[in-house]
Amino acid sequence: MAKRKVRRVKRKVKVFLVISILLIVVGIFLQITSFSKEDKKDSKKVVKKEKPKDYEIKMLMVGDALIHSGVYIDAKGSDGSYNFKPMLEQIKPISTKYDLSYYNQETVLGGTELGLSSYPRFNSPYEVGDAFIDAGFNVVSLATNHTMDKNEEGVLNSVAYWKKQKNIVTSGQWSSEEERNKVRTYEKNGIKYAFFSYTTWTNGLETPVGKEYLNNVYSEEKAKEDIEKVRDKVDVVIVAMHWGTEYSLGVSEEQTKIANYLSDLGVDLIVGAHPHVVEPVEYINDNKTFVIYSLGNFISDQEGTERLTGLMMEVTIKKHVDKKKKTTVKIDNPKAELIYTKSNMGSKKDFKVYPYPELNNTLLPNYMSFYAQYKTVVSERYPDITWGLTEE
Predict the structure, then answer these.
(1) For a Cys-Cys bond, which of 104, 105, 254, 363 suits 141, CB 3.0-4.6 Å?
(2) pLDDT reading at 43 higher than 60
(3) Sequence-separated (6 or more) residues with CB below 8 Å from residue 235
(4) CATH code, domain with 301
(5) 230: Cβ–Cβ under 8 A, 6 or more apart, which residues?
């Protein structure tokens, strides 16, 4: 009887061991199968190809906000406030369509507390900036030959005004060396960009020693240092240049030299100001850089059709990332339109900026002749330019 019990126990032990071994084998098999599936998944992940990706920014550029006394007196209301918005109402439906809209704030926004003034040492009210922001402008060049017209206080007031504005990119004036040297990059629609503003002119109004940050005066060394800090961090580098010869429709040797130097540093887009008239546009350095030598005046009270005619330029900044994640960037499809600042020249009233296609012979007698003349100037070096901006 005892022997039978022992045999039964032994059989149970054997059965238990067999079942245990089977379970272990099955577990190992399942684990191997699982690992195999994961390996296949990982393998698929590795061989999966990235799809090419495309990004783009639509950018508009206009010229100088040159605020003579005639302009700010016309903007003054009976209550003493200033409103420049009606002057831009023909442009606002255009400028608000773009991802980036640029203009050059020629005269310093020192505010009424410093006393408004006109040529030769300007000072403009903050409401000029309000009007441009309302019209969709969000990239502003501040380094000009009039930056120091109200000395250090004027610049500090201007910087303080622009700091209060949201989502506005500025360059060219700062309140400290630390601010001036801060690396700034921006992003729009998946494209990273940097923006710099320099002036080659100061009208003899130099910045105080040790406070050169107040007005960003161009030098090759300064530009090289600035651009090298950001070139590998962004897709696009944009530079606003205050350069050239006043009232010249042609391109100077200095402009050519600077443009080629900046292109060699990796600048993609150069936007010119200071001549107060339109100048040619072109691609340079094997289409590496697009240059607008001068956009002319956007709004002013200067005399003569050529000084009241400005240029609006549109470009598409395109970024392509291929399957191997290699990135290429191009300033593409430049389009142009001319604008004209109209006022009642007798009374210096009713200043308003019009696109040339919105003019007629009452607003500007013989306007089609002027249109053809200045189109020829702009397209002299780049005949393939498209006339007429994108309508969306």
Answers:
(1) 104
(2) no
(3) 191, 192, 193, 319, 327, 329
(4) 3.60.21.10
(5) 183, 184, 185, 194, 237
The reply to whether 88 and 30 lie within a common domain is no
Euclidean distance between CA atoms 330 and 316, whole angstroms: 8
Q: For residue range 79-110, what is the model confidence (pLDDT) as tens digits?
A: 999 999 999 999 999 999 999 999 999 999 99
Q: How many domains does the chain have?
A: 2
Q: Are residues 259 and 187 in the same domain?
A: yes
With contact defined as beta carbons under 8 Å apart, do 64 and 104 qualify? yes
Crossing angle between the packed helical segments 253-265 and 220-230, to the nearest 10 degrees: 30
Tens digit of pLDDT for each residue in 8-21? 545 654 655 556 56
Query: What is the percentage of the chain residues whose pLDDT exceeds 70?
Result: 87
> Does any domain span residue 392?
no
Q: Which of 165, 157, 142 is nearest to 110 (CA)?
A: 157
Q: How many angstroms from the chain centroid is the CA of residue 255?
A: 20
Distances (CA, A) of 317 to 24, 161, 211, 233, 290: 63, 29, 35, 17, 11
DSSP calls for 326-380: -EEEEEEEEEEEEEEEEEETTTTEEEEEEEGGG--TTTSTTHHHHHHHHHHHHTS
Q: Mind listing the pLDDT tens digit for each residue in 298-316? A: 999 999 999 999 999 999 9
Helix (H) or strand (E) holding 252: none
Q: How far apart are CA 48 and CA 215, in angstroms?
A: 52
User: Which amino acid is residue 81, in one-letter code?
Assistant: S
Instruction: Please say whether the beta carbons of 42 and 178 come within 8 A.
Output: no
pTM (global) more than 0.85: yes
The answer to whether the beta carbons of residues 273 and 144 sit under 8 Å apart is yes
Residue 117 and residue 43 share a domain: no
